[in-house]
Amino acid sequence: MDRESTSSAQELLQIGTIHHSYLSDRLKIAIGSQLNDRTQDPEHPDRTRFNCVSQPPYLNYYLDITLMGKPTGFIEYLREVEAEISPVERIHNWDEFHLPLPDQTLRNQSARCMDCGTPFCHTGNMVAGMASGCPIGNLIPEWNDLVYRGLWREALDRLHKTNNFPEFTGRVCPAPCEGSCVLGIHKSPVTIKSIEHSIVDKGWEEGWIVPQPPAKRTGKKIAIVGSGPAGLCAAAQLNQAGHWVTVLERADRPGGLLMYGIPNMKLEKEQVVLRRIELLEAEGITFTCNVEVGKDLTTADLLKDYDAVVLCTGATKPRDLPIAGRELTGIHFAMDFLTANTQAVLDGKENSNFISAAGKDVIIIGGGDTGTDCVGTSIRHNCNSVEQLEIMPTPPLKRSADNPWPEWPKVYKMDYGQEEAAAKFGHDPRAYLTTATKFEGDENGNVTAVHTVQVQWEKNEQGQFALKHVPGTEKVNPAQLVLLAMGFLGPEQPLLTALGIECNNRSNIQAEHEKYTTNIPGVFAAGDCRRGQSLVVWAFNEGRGVARECDLYLMGSTDLP
Ligand SMILES: Cc1cc2nc3c(=O)[nH]c(=O)nc-3n(C[C@H](O)[C@H](O)[C@H](O)COP(=O)(O)OP(=O)(O)OC[C@H]3O[C@@H](n4cnc5c(N)ncnc54)[C@H](O)[C@@H]3O)c2cc1C
Ligand code: SF4
To answer: What's the pTM?
Structure first.
């Protein structure tokens, strides 16, 4: 609902407008008894405007509306998420493996959204250092209600109001919204991510998502460096504001980590990522690939040719493990393995120089999401075995007392890669509280084994947790392929040095969140290069935010949200 209250000295107070879909009989009666004027909103024919003629002193009128469709839904229906093709079947191809839920099931799942009164799912606040709720403020209760009523197109419109590309988040977002769903306090949360996924997939299937070029052009030219989710969101928003946008990308295909990072089985490249990029092109955005800014295009030309520059270069500098034997052949950064693999999937393996795990014992160092993608990819190569080393302890099965709702739940879960490893090799591949101490190789310089030891975390004299090796737990694990997936150390520096951009003590670009201005006027920064390696949904948050600030800088005012 758009509320447009006014307390000025007008006699006609417009106290709100509401979409027709919310006008239940009960609501009409309630409003009829309180208000004395109701008209169609001329700017929005699908809405009714509520007015009230009043004499001073003006009363504080409000619309008191119950929005949710089925108050008892959360009692009647159990949570159901999208079904998956079984691990033993899906490991033979690179296809996505989630199966759509039938419409009626989705409507029942939406009905579980319970009109909680103070929803946390769409707030995106930081709680205990982690996002609690949706970082882009998706209007979750509203589209749940619309789906329950079968108003899919309206649900899609609500979704697009805050999210430029729901087909990406609907597939890969870890869904902090569900961690803060009020229903999750005592039952399983609403399956928000599956509903988002279904709304947008229906939108594409039905042909509702079509190019919408801006009506007017401002004549301003903006360069966006990097075509990951932050760059794509910034481009979409700035183009809608009427600017000419060029996205410069050093890779051969646009999409950043959506293209070359997240594997195809989690996010399909041609039918999902490139489909949206083609739509952005049709709306007037230019994508120029195979151009590394700072190398193929000088920074002087970049600053000269454009009215503003937005840096969305990501945080792809990998953390290394400088232990004995690191120089051996067969030890790679995870991203080299994943990028070359996706290139091979798209270009055909015979044309590609990818790193193969076929027939090998694979050890992945790092138990996070990048490591999980390496597990799923190694299994699809038909590796001989796979193990994932994680230095932290096994998380608890349920929230611990110091991790209450609505914080992000830090609990044990099997992601798709671990499920696949368990199906193929009989166990979760993660070895917790374990670290590598040395790599061993043969006479030809190829890695043959990884030495490991178990660790424990103990508080030192300064009260900080320090790592200690546990004597007697040393092991030698055969390995012909080792993948380093231990996180990232911020953005690559050469372009930033050439531009003279200041970085902070975490080596990320120095620019305030929600301002995005760097030390160089007209140059903005957003996404992982500003906040460090994060999530797609945060890249969306920053891409939309930087567009707003850049538009304000160029035009002196902005209508962008
Ligand atoms: C393996 C992996 C899996 C992940 N899985 C998930 C997931 O499932 N869910 C999730 O939410 N998040 C996931 N993430 C994190 C998420 O992908 C990132 O947080 C997000 O992509 C960051 O977006 P970005 O636009 O800031 O940067 P990126 O996506 O990193 O894009 C940066 C782009 O800039 C380009 N670039 C850099 N320098 C230049 C230059 N000088 N000239 C031209 N172009 C340049 C790069 O080539 C790249 O295309 C994953 C990350 C990794 C590494
Ligand atoms: S983008 Fe992520 S956090 Fe937001 S509603 Fe979708 S799944 Fe939830």
So the answer is: 0.90
- Average pLDDT rounded to a whole number, residues 399-426: 95
158, burial (CB in 10 Å: exposed 0-12, middle 13-18, buried 19+) = buried
Q: Who's near 414: CB < 8 A, 6+ residues apart?
A: 422, 428
Contact between residue 514 and residue 545 where contact means Cβ atoms under 8 Å apart: yes
Ligand 1 binding pocket includes 200 (Cβ within 6 Å): no
Residue with the smallest CA separation from ligand 2 atom 4 is 134
Q: Are 496 and 316 in contact (CB under 8 A)?
A: no
Domains annotated for the chain, with CATH where assigned, are 1-65 (no CATH), 73-205 (1.10.1060.10), 221-317+489-555 (3.50.50.60), 331-484 (3.50.50.60)
CB crowding 290-305: b at 16 or more within 10 Å, else e: eeebbeebebeebeee
DSSP class per residue in 448-483: EEEEEEEEEEEE-TTS-EEEEE-TT--EEEE-SEEE
At 143-175, the pLDDT tens digits run: 999 999 899 999 999 999 999 999 999 999 999
Comparing CA positions, the residue from 241, 228, 239 lying closest to residue 283 is: 239
Centre a 10 Å sphere on the Cβ of residue 252 and count the other Cβ atoms it contains. 12
Calpha distance 372→370 (Å, rounded):
5
Q: Is the CB of 175 under 6 A from ligand 2?
A: yes
Helix, strand, coil fractions of the chain, as percent rounded to 5: 35, 20, 45
Q: Is the CB of 539 inside a 6 Å radius of any atom of ligand 2?
A: no
Percent of the chain residues past pLDDT 90, beyond the cut: 81
